[in-house]
Design goal:
alpha+beta; 10% strand; single chain; 6 helices
């Protein structure tokens, strides 16, 4: 016998039955880029490279992605640790000068060595501390203190290490301020005066760098 036509026989199956469902949207779980990138629920700053969210401290850096601006406290702690490293340089130089002075046979030679020794200690100590920071920042973007505290200096244009020229300028500004008017400390505190949310000091602006957190 003939079966009646089923008007619904040609209808497609309901969604989810016999057919795969395409995922809606990108979903969560996409890897974040950059240092200190926000986790789920933390929105990256809107805008292109250089955009910063002053509330969250997040900044977009071309070539690096989203990073978190380092706090002044972390930078200050890194500076303190580096000051201890500098003290080791000076202590070794002082020991060397004392050893040379003790080896002198006459009092006149000892006196001249004392004056000359003080000048040599100052000169070599200054050179050692400048070279330490120059090389470490140019090559790694971090001194020992910055490694310990999770702070890194990067070129704000591309996220790379600052390089030799920028590293030199970054060191030169506080040295000039300290030499002429004793205000080197003010340079290191100048990120407090930055209203952009990037926490850039005067030396950072001259070197075109940005100090970010790696934690």
């Amino acid at each position: 016998s003939n079966q009646p036509d089923d008007p619904a026989g040609s209808a497609p199956p309901p969604p989810g039955q016999g057919q795969g469902m395409a995922p809606q949207g990108g979903g969560y779980g996409a890897p974040q880029t950059g240092y200190g990138a926000p986790g789920q629920g933390a929105a990256a700053p809107a805008g292109g490279p250089g955009a910063v969210d002053a509330n969250s401290g997040l900044v977009n850096i071309a070539g690096l992605g989203t990073a978190k601006v380092a706090t002044l406290g972390a930078r200050a702690l890194a500076r303190i640790i580096d000051s201890i490293v500098y003290s080791v340089f000076w202590f070794l130089l002082i020991l060397l000068m004392f050893a040379i002075g003790a080896a002198s046979s006459s009092s006149s030679e000892s006196a001249s060595m004392g004056v000359g020794g003080i000048m040599l200690i100052w000169f070599f100590g200054f050179v050692a501390t400048v070279l330490y920071e120059l090389v470490m920042i140019a090559v790694k973007g971090q001194t020992i203190g910055k490694m310990v505290t999770g702070v890194k200096v990067v070129d704000q244009r591309n996220g790379q290490n600052p390089g030799w020229g920028a590293s030199f300028m970054r060191i030169l500004i506080p040295q000039i301020a300290n030499f002429f008017c004793g205000l080197g400390l003010l340079v290191y505190l100048s990120p407090m005066f930055d209203s952009s949310g990037r926490m850039q000091g005067w030396h950072d602006n001259v070197a075109n760098d940005l100090v970010i957190s790696t934690k």
